[in-house]
Design a protein that fits this description.
single chain; 237 residues; alpha/beta; Arc Repressor Mutant, subunit A; Glutaredoxin; 2 domains; five-stranded mixed sheet; binds FE2/S2 (inorganic) cluster; Complex I 24 kDa subunit family protein; iron-sulfur
Length: 237
């Protein structure tokens, strides 16, 4: 856990939000996805679809309103669809940080502040988000509605730290300048390629192989089956 207050847009389901819609219905795309999800569970275990349906709702809100969040009326619609009490959906939605129970900006900037990312420059990533995204602190949404800033714990990609998650995508090996460039591209409506921003191949070492350098690389076409020495015991497969 870093020193920063761990705030995000996701925690409370207290009073109704001013922007809270008064009704919600699943659109055709969501309904098709729900059919697929619910087919995985026996009728008596439909409650297991709670998390997938929350994801589906959040995506629908992002698609249709530009703000990927889960209003309370949508949680009620999920409860109705699954035949469970609404509180069962509320308690899941408020437990997991990936569900936004308040409206957010068009792009959700999630800065990893855990130790490996902190040691590799997450403070610079945060500063770049604040400057380029016009954001004051964690939990803030920019006045133009473009960005919301959240601190998250380890995203499981420490090997390419520091990491910024934008919505569902990871941007890796960031520094101040590359983070600013990324945010400016998002503002222009572009979506830069995800993954390492320094061209690293997945999680390979920077600068290419660093160990086992004495081993000659042989292409599959060059490989030959080694000759069996005379008198060697037969190979048992
Ligand atoms: S510490 Fe940031 S991805 Fe693990």
């Amino acid at each position: 856990m870093s020193d920063h207050a761990h705030e995000g847009p996701t925690h409370a389901i207290g009073k109704q939000q001013p922007q809270e819609p008064t009704s919600f219905s699943f659109d055709a795309e969501s309904n098709a996805q729900i059919e697929t999800v619910l087919a995985r569970y026996p009728e008596a275990k439909k409650a297991s679809g709670t998390i997938p349906l929350l994801h589906i709702v959040q995506k629908q809100m992002g698609r249709t309103t530009g703000s990927a969040w889960v209003p309370r009326v949508a949680m009620d619609a999920i409860a109705h669809r699954l035949g469970i009490a609404p509180i069962r959906v509320y308690e899941v939605a408020t437990f997991y940080l990936m569900f936004n129970t308040k409206p957010i900006g068009r792009y959700h900037l999630q800065v990893c502040g855990t130790t490996p990312c902190m040691l590799r420059g997450s403070d610079d990533v945060l500063r770049a988000c604040q400057v380029a995204g016009k954001l004051k602190s964690y939990g803030d949404t920019s006045e133009d509605g473009m960005f919301t800033l959240t601190e998250v714990e380890c995203l499981g990609a420490c090997v390419n730290a520091p990491i910024l998650q934008v919505d569902d995508d990871y941007y890796e090996d960031l520094d101040y300048d590359r983070t600013v460039q990324l945010i400016e591209a998002l503002r222009r409506g572009e979506r830069p390629p995800i993954g390492s921003t320094i061209g690293r191949q997945t999680s390979a070492p920077e600068g290419g192989p660093q160990v086992l350098l004495e081993i000659e690389t042989v292409s599959p076409a060059q490989r030959t089956v080694p000759a069996v020495p005379k008198g060697a015991p037969p190979v048992v497969e």
